[in-house]
Amino acid sequence: MKKSQFAVALILSGVLAGQAGVAVAQTFSERATCKLTNTQANKTLYEGGCKVTQSMSGKNTIFSVKMGSGEPFMFAGVRGEKNWMHGPDETQFTDLPNGGIFRWSTFALVVAE
Description:
Blueprint: H1 3-20, E1 26-38, E2 43-57, E3 60-67, E4 73-78, E5 83-86, E6 89-96, E7 99-104, E8 107-112
Antiparallel strand pairs: 1-2, 1-8, 2-3, 3-4, 5-6, 6-7, 7-8
């Protein structure tokens, strides 16, 4: 989904929610390319297609990143802030124009449209 489409969807859902007087959780999914690396060992653990789902509720954003047949990686935080969570691990999130980078412990996950 392009940024302009995303912005329109956010505006429309906000207007509809405001008219109905209720909060609306928003979810967007798309296919992407992911690369998971163990930065300490300098070893690529996964590189290929992935499904990224972004859910929004209020100012909180949750990313679910599913690579292959494994369980999805979940990240939660506030857009615009660098410190996010991945389970009990604090995660550094870098928001990029066409993707993002999640860094935690000895791992880095790069997501690109």
